[in-house]
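step=encode ok
step=design start
structure_in=
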């Protein structure tokens, strides 16, 4: 596959069974350096709260750590859940990141709280804040504009800095908002693919050019679990499958180790739900991954693909991203 479509990474700083948050954060930096050497375009981290298997809650802090430990790869949020924050605070945080790492910082924002209602209250923000999401996005964009004389409130740092803002979504709402505001759009097809085709259609049809984005730009997320053989990759994929089952059962926890028999783990109903949620997945050896990625890109025509690999063993995760890079034809994909 030609690398004309950039390949990127979404990481959740997974805390695996037998590990802890410190190891997870170290692994995220190691992975960012690894995929940078392989030619991946950007490395995004996502905000989640009250999830023992995810260590990226303080997303801006972790972005700063990863950006400081890498040299060229873009680093950003995929994303910041705006209902949890004031737009000014987000502008200041990402203005600071952009001042520290010019030309390398991305800010994706979503309207989901990224947590449960009790945790949302603990964050001192509430679910009804999501109703203000369009206004909050516009307020946020305003803070990145050059400050006007006499402006009462400004983001310092932030005002006048180059911080690309993305709209994230798993429904039609995000596609419509990104189109209306003339912003790039990233769809969460790696766990909620049902509305993907319709969202892309709406986004491209209704896109209004802006000073930030002259043409529509859509990113799709895809789960990629690659190994030396199809059989090995399918076994590694049972980690993601178990994690989804555990989440549906209301028992999210540390990222589980792979198992030999996933059929014994879930009920038929759970299997159907997980397979639907993870429909945008490419699992297999090098040839299978090359064919799967090419077919996905040809069918959906994204401007960029962002790869998610929920794999228990860190070395296996590194190898998966290497195989995917080679399958995609990235420059530098011979790196170790």
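sequence_out=
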């Amino acid at each position: 596959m030609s690398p004309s479509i950039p390949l990127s990474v979404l990481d959740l700083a997974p805390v695996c069974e037998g590990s802890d948050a410190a190891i997870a954060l170290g692994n995220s930096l190691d992975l960012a350096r690894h995929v940078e050497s392989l030619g991946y375009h950007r490395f995004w981290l996502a905000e989640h709260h009250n999830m023992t298997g995810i260590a990226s809650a303080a997303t801006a802090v972790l972005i700063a750590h990863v950006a400081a430990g890498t040299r060229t790869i873009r680093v950003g949020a995929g994303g910041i859940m705006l209902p949890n924050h004031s737009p000014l605070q987000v502008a200041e945080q990402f203005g600071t990141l952009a001042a520290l790492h010019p030309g390398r910082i991305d800010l994706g924002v979503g309207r989901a709280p990224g947590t449960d209602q009790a945790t949302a209250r603990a964050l001192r923000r509430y679910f009804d804040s999501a109703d203000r999401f369009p206004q909050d996005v516009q307020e946020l964009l305003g803070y990145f504009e050059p400050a006007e004389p006499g402006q009462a409130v400004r983001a310092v740092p932030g005002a006048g800095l180059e911080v690309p803002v993305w709209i994230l979504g798993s429904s039609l709402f995000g596609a419509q908002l990104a189109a209306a505001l003339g912003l790039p759009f990233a769809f969460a097809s790696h766990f909620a693919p049902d509305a993907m085709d319709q969202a892309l259609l709406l986004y491209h049809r209704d896109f209004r050019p802006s000073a930030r984005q002259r043409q529509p730009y859509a990113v799709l997320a895809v789960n990629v679990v690659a190994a030396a053989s199809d059989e090995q990759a399918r076994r590694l994929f049972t980690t993601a499958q178990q994690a989804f089952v555990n989440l549906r059962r209301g028992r999210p926890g540390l990222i589980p180790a792979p198992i030999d028999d996933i059929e014994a783990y879930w009920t038929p109903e759970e299997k159907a739900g997980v397979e639907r949620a993870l429909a945008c997945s490419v699992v297999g050896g090098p040839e299978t991954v090359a064919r799967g990625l090419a077919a996905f890109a040809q069918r959906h025509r994204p401007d960029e693909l962002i790869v998610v690999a929920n794999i228990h063993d860190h070395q296996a995760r590194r190898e998966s991203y290497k195989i995917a890079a080679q399958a995609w034809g990235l420059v530098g994909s011979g790196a170790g």
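step=design ok
step=annotate ok -> The chain has a mean pLDDT of 94.
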